[in-house]
Amino acid sequence: MTSSITVARVKQKRIAELISHGKRLDERGLNDFREVQLEVGVIERAEGSARVRLGKTEVMVGIKIEIGEPFSDVPNQGVLTVNAELVPLASPKFEPGPPNENAIELARVVDRGIRESKAISTEKLCIIPGKKVFIVFVDLWVLNHDGNLIDASAMAALAALLNTKIFNYEIKDDEIKIKPGYTQLPIVDHPIAVTFAKIDDNFVVDPWLVEEQVMDARFTITIDKDGKICALQKGGYGYFSMEKILEAAKIAQQKAEELRKIVVKG
Amino acid sequence: MTSSITVARVKQKRIAELISHGKRLDERGLNDFREVQLEVGVIERAEGSARVRLGKTEVMVGIKIEIGEPFSDVPNQGVLTVNAELVPLASPKFEPGPPNENAIELARVVDRGIRESKAISTEKLCIIPGKKVFIVFVDLWVLNHDGNLIDASAMAALAALLNTKIFNYEIKDDEIKIKPGYTQLPIVDHPIAVTFAKIDDNFVVDPWLVEEQVMDARFTITIDKDGKICALQKGGYGYFSMEKILEAAKIAQQKAEELRKIVVKG
Amino acid sequence: MTSSITVARVKQKRIAELISHGKRLDERGLNDFREVQLEVGVIERAEGSARVRLGKTEVMVGIKIEIGEPFSDVPNQGVLTVNAELVPLASPKFEPGPPNENAIELARVVDRGIRESKAISTEKLCIIPGKKVFIVFVDLWVLNHDGNLIDASAMAALAALLNTKIFNYEIKDDEIKIKPGYTQLPIVDHPIAVTFAKIDDNFVVDPWLVEEQVMDARFTITIDKDGKICALQKGGYGYFSMEKILEAAKIAQQKAEELRKIVVKG
Amino acid sequence: MRKTHEKLINENSTRLDGRKSNQLRPIKIEVGTLSNADGSAYIEQGKNKILAAVYGPKELHPKHRALPDRALLICRYHMAPFSVQERKSPAPSRREIEISKVIREALEPSVFVEYYPRTSIDIFIEVLQADGGTRCSGITVASLALADAGIPMHDLVSACAAGKVDGQLVLDLNDIEDKEGEADLPLALMPNLNAITLIQMDGDLSINEFEQTLNLAKEGCKQIHALQKDALKAKYAAVKEVVEEK
Amino acid sequence: MRKTHEKLINENSTRLDGRKSNQLRPIKIEVGTLSNADGSAYIEQGKNKILAAVYGPKELHPKHRALPDRALLICRYHMAPFSVQERKSPAPSRREIEISKVIREALEPSVFVEYYPRTSIDIFIEVLQADGGTRCSGITVASLALADAGIPMHDLVSACAAGKVDGQLVLDLNDIEDKEGEADLPLALMPNLNAITLIQMDGDLSINEFEQTLNLAKEGCKQIHALQKDALKAKYAAVKEVVEEK
Amino acid sequence: MRKTHEKLINENSTRLDGRKSNQLRPIKIEVGTLSNADGSAYIEQGKNKILAAVYGPKELHPKHRALPDRALLICRYHMAPFSVQERKSPAPSRREIEISKVIREALEPSVFVEYYPRTSIDIFIEVLQADGGTRCSGITVASLALADAGIPMHDLVSACAAGKVDGQLVLDLNDIEDKEGEADLPLALMPNLNAITLIQMDGDLSINEFEQTLNLAKEGCKQIHALQKDALKAKYAAVKEVVEEK
C-alpha cells in the first residue's frame, strides 16, 4: 500500500471521528452551509449572469439567449440547454478537453432541477410555433473547486436566470424584428439543490473539498418553492439506508428555504 | 521471441496440417459453414431487424427508416447507409470508441454487397424528387465475435432488410403525411457473402476465430441471386494465386445458394 | 544533460558564429532567399492551383470555389477560408491527425496576409446578397518541410489565387444556373510574406530547417503591393529589440518586391 | 411533453399495458448468454431488451490508471441506434455518459474490489431495445453478469423504478409513463443489506409521496432480486447437467 | 466589416468611449484571486474581464513530453461561451489555439525555465468577458499569476495594443475600434529589458506609421507595467497584514 | 448514378479518352521526389497525381504497439481537398480508412518485415488529383517509395484495375468509367511471384467474365511492373551520374 493511501485513510478516520461527535474540520455544524456570496449581472455581454461563492468554491454562470428551432414533440416551447465546464484553472485535478463524466453529471443535475421544477415558462419562449423559439443556454463555469459544485452551480444558475432579460421583438411577414427594450425571462419556480456527504454512517450538508475526498457517497436533493422534491441524485461508491435518505429530505427542505432567500433576493 | 509467439506458431502449424488433410479443429469439412440460426423481427422499435448466429458468432441488425435529402447526383433515389459497431461486449479485443478500420471495412463490405447487387429498389424510396427520400440505416451490431463477421453480418443485414416495413404516407401541399399501415421495403436481390481463409496454401470456408487468428489472408466473394459476383474483398497480410481465387469463386456460388435458402425463407 | 542537447548547442553556436560573420551554412547572404520555383495550374480538378519550391521546401496550394452562405455581418461579401495540413509525408516531425497549433498558425498567418491586404475583391463574390456567395477554399498542402513554410505557403497561395477561375452563372427565379465559360477570380493586391529568424542577435531572411532548429524566434512581415505592412507575426521563444524590428521591416519591403515579381508574373 | 394519451391509468386502476399500480412488467432473464465474455446475462423487462457482459478482473492499460488498493470498475451503458423510435447516433450521448457513471457507482458497492488491486473489471451494457427504465434493467442484468463472471460480491444489486402517473404511485414505469407521468424514481438496492446504491428522481413529489414511492421501488427491487436468484440457479443447473452428461 | 458607426473618433479627438488617442482603458487588477491555483490574478481592462491561474512547476504526464533541460510551458487561452455577443462553443476554436501559442511564446522569455527541468508550468487564461485586446490583457494578467506562483522571472511581461482608427494612431483598442479600425498591433514587452516578446499586426500601416504605432504600444506597456507592480505590492501588503495580525 | 454520357465506348471500340479496351492510361513515374522522406516516389496515371513517402524502419511510439518478431507497417492513404470535383474535408473519410487498410495489406506481403522487429515502417500516400483507380496508382507508387527507402522486398507490387464498361472488358478505368461502368476490379500483384496481394470488386460479373477481367488486370500489372523498374533504374542512373560528377 502506498503511503498516500495511508495518509488518506488517517485523514478519513479523523474527519469521520469529528463528525461522529457532531463537529467538522472547518468548525461548521453538520447541517451548516458555508457562507454564500452572490453577485449578479457581472457579465454585461450575457443576457444574464451570476457569480456565486460558497466558501472558497466559486462558480460563474452566464446565460445566452438565441433564436432556434423547437424540438418536434414540443413545437411551442423554448429550449433549455445546460452545459458545465470544469476548466483547469479551477483545480489541479481538472484537465482541458471536452466535458468528462463529472462535468456532464453536474450539468445534468442542475438541468434537471430547473426542468423538473418547471422554473422557466418555456411556452412563453415560443416565437413562431414549430419554427422559432428562444433557446436558453446556461453555461456553468467553475472557477475554483473547493467542494459541492452542484449546490453552488444550481444557485448560480437560478440567480443568473432571475437576472436574465430577453430583447423585445415583433413578427412581420414571418420575420423576427428586434425592437427596443428588454423583457425579464419568465421564471416561475426557484429550485434549490442541497447536497449531503456520507462519511462513515453520518451525513453532513454542503461538503467542502476535504470532506468530498473522504466521503463514501453524496446525495443531492433539489427542492422547489413549494417544498416538494423535484430531483434527486446519488453519486460516489457508497450506499445509503432508507432512513438516512428520508432524514436528509427533511433537512434539505429546511436548508433550501434558507438558501432560496439569499438567491432570490440576490 | 516471446513464448506467446511460439504458441501461436505451434497452433498455426497444427491447424494447417489438419487442413492439409482435409480436416478442421471443429470437425467441419473445408467447405462447410457452421450452423446458421436466424431470428427476424426481434426489435419491435426498429422498422426491420434480424439476429443471426453463425456457430457462436452472433450479429444483430436493426433497420431504421428516416426521411432525408437525396444525394444531388441521384435526386430520385433513396439512400442506403451501413454502419457497424464492434461493441466491446462482443470480444476482449474490441474497445469502446468510434469505429476502427475493422468495423469500417466490415460495414463497407456489407454495404457493397447490397449496393452492387442493387438489392434495394432505391428509386422506389423517392418521396419528392430532389427533396425528400427515405434513408435506410442498416446498423450491424456484433454481439459475440467467434470469427467470420462478414458473412454473418451480410446474412443478418439481408434478413433484416427482408423484414423491413415502411409506414405509408401521402403528399399534401409538399408536406408528407403519415397514413395508417405499412409497406414492405422493396428488396429485389439477395446478395450472400462467402468468406474463405487461406491457411498455408489451402482455403477453408467460414473461418471461426481460431482459424482467423492463424490465417494468412481472407477472401470474401459476394454472390447475387443470379449466381453472379457483385463484390470481392481481400483482407489480411497474405497473398493468393490466380487459381485459388477462381476455385473459390466456384465454391462461393454453390455455398451462396445454400445460405440464401436459409436467409430468404427466414 | 543528454548528448543530443549538447550536439544541438554546438550546432547552434557554429551557425550563430557564421552568421555573426555575415555567412550562412548554405552559403547564402543573410538577406538572400533560396531559389523560388513556381508552377501554376498543376491541379486541373481545382479552380486554381500552384506548387512552390523554396529551396527544398515544397508547398502545393489548391483553390476550390463553392457556393454557400455569407456571414450575417457582411451579407454581400464572399467568404475566404484558409486551411493548412502538415501531412506526415513532408517531415519526420509531422504526425497524422487534425491540424495542430503549428498548422493552425500557418493557415492563419497566410489568411491574414490575404485578408488584411484585401487581395480578393470579396464584394464581387456575392451572388445573391445575404443568401448566396462564393466561398474560396485555400488549402495549403505542405509536401516537403525544409524551413520557412510561411513564406513558401503565402507565395503558393497568392499564385494559386491568381490562377483561379470561377464558372460563369446567371440567376433565374432565385436559382443559380451555371453558364459556359469562366471568369478570373478578382485579385487586386499581392501580399508577400517575408520571414526572419533571430539567431543570437542577428536576423537572417528565409531560414531553412537547420536554422529554424537553432533560432531563438522568428518574425514574419507581410507587405502589400504598395509597400505597406498588412500583417505581422512573431513566433518562437525568443524576443526582439525595437531596432531590429524596424530594420527588418525595411528589408522586408525590398525582399517582398523581388519575390512579388516572381509570383505575379508566374 | 405533448400528451399522447388522455389517461395513463383507467377507471379500473389499470395501466395502459394492463398492469396494476404495484405490478412489475413481465421479466425474462438469462445468465451466460455470450461465449466470449467472462460473465454475461440478458434481460427482457417489458419491451426492454438488454445484454450485459463482464470482462475481468484483468490487467489495466494504461497502467497509471490502475489503483494500488482495489480494482477499477469500468462501465459503459450504450444504446443501439435501432433501440429507440428515432435512430440514435452510435456515439455516446451525454445521457449515456451520465448513466454509465451512476450504474458504475450503483454496482461498485456490491463488489469486493479490494480483492483485485491494480486490475480492472469492465462492464458493458448494450440496450438493444429501450422502453423506459433501462438504467434499472441495466443494473439488474449487469449484476448478474458480474456474478456469472465469478466475481465475489456482498449481494446482487437489484434495481427498479417507482413513480407517479396520473396522480397515482406506480411501480416499474414504462417509456410512456416515464415521459408523460409526474415523477420517476429509479432505485438500486442490495436487498440483503438494505443498502441503496442508486437513487435518482425526476419530477415532483411531496416528502410523503417520496417515502411511499421509495417503499414501492424497494418492494420492486426485492421481487427482482428473487428473479435474479432464479436465473442464476437455472444457469448452474444447466451447467451441472452439461457437466454430468459428459 | 459593415460600419456600425460613422466616426470612431469625433472632432474633439475623443473616442467613442470618451478616451483620448493615447489613453488606456480603465484597468483594475487583483493578484491571488483563486485559492486552488499556485498563482492567480484577475484583470478588468475596459469591459475585458479575465482570470489567469498558474499551476506548477509540477511533474509532467506523459513523461516523454518532458524536456531534459528546462520546464515545459503549457498555455491555454480560453473564452467562456457568454464572454461574447454570440454564444461561443466551449470547444477551442482555431483562433484560441493560435492565441494560446503566441501567449505562451510571449511569456516564456520571461521565465527562468532552465531552473525546473522535466517539469511543466501550466498557465490557464479564462476570458469571462471580451471587448477587444484580450490577448494583451491575458498576457498582462498571466504574467502576474506567474509572479504570484513564485516563479522566478527576468521581468514581468506587459502587453498592450496600439493601432490606427479613423486615420489616427490610438492606444489600447476596444472591440469596435479593433473590428472597424484600420490596424491593430498587439505588443508584449519586458519593459526593464526593452525586449519584445509578442508582436502581431492586422491591417495596413506604412513603415512610418508602423514605427509610431510601435512606440505608442510600448508606452502603453510601460504604463501597464506600473499597474502590474502596484497590484503585486497590494497583494504582498495584504498578505503581510494578515500574517502580522496572526 | 445518373449517366452523363450515352456511350462510354464508341462504335470504333474507342473509349472516351481515346484508349483501346486493353490500354493503360499514360503513366509518368519519378522516384526520389522528396528530400525529407527515407524513400519517395510520384506517379501520374492519366489525371491521377499521387505522391508517396516512406519513413523507416524506425522506432515505434507508443512502444506497446511494437511487434516482437517483425516491423509494423503503417499506411495512410489521404486525399487533398482539391483533388476531387467537390472539395473533400481533410479529415479521413471511411473510404480513406478502408483504402489505407487494403493498401497496407497489399504491400505487406512484399516486405521482409521480419528483418526489422520492434520497428515501424510508415507509408504515406497523398492523392493530389484523383481520376479513378487511385488505390492502384497509390500501391504502385508506394511500392517504389519502399524500394527507394532501401527496404528489402520479395518483389515490387504492381497494381491495376480492370472492369466492365458498356458491356466490354476494359483495362485501367478512369473516374467516369468506374462510376458509370458495370464493374471495377482493382488488383495488386507481385508479378515475379504471381502473388495477388489485393483484390476487390464492385459491380456485376459472371464467373467467366470474372476470370477474363482478372487476366486483363494481371496483364496491366505486368506492364506497370516494367514501368516501375524503368523508373527505379532512371533514379539510380541519375544518382550514379551525380556521384561520378563529384
Output the CATH homologous superfamily of chain A. GHMP Kinase, N-terminal domain
Domain module count of chain A: 1
- Major sheet details of chain A: 6 strands, mixed
Amount of helix of chain A: 25-40%
Which characteristics define this entry?
heterohexamer; A: 266 residues; Ribosomal Protein S5, domain 2; 6-stranded mixed sheet; 5 helices; D: 246 residues; alpha+beta; 5-stranded mixed sheet; 9 strands
Explain the layout of strands and helices.
The complex is a heterohexamer, with 3 copies of chain A (266 residues) and 3 copies of chain D (246 residues).
Chain A: H1 3-20, E1 36-40, E2 48-54, E3 57-68, E4 79-85, H2 101-116, E5 126-128, E6 132-144, H3 149-162, E7 165-172, E8 175-184, E9 192-199, E10 202-205, H4 209-214, E11 217-223, E12 229-235, H5 242-265
Parallel strand pairs in A: 4-6
Antiparallel strand pairs in A: 1-2, 2-3, 3-6, 5-6, 7-8, 9-10, 9-11, 11-12
Chain D: E1 27-31, E2 39-45, E3 48-59, E4 72-79, H1 94-107, E5 119-129, H2 134-148, E6 158-165, E7 168-171, H3 175-180, E8 183-190, E9 195-205, H4 207-245
Parallel strand pairs in D: 4-5
Antiparallel strand pairs in D: 1-2, 2-3, 3-5, 6-7, 6-8, 8-9
Helix pairs in contact in D: 1-2, 2-4
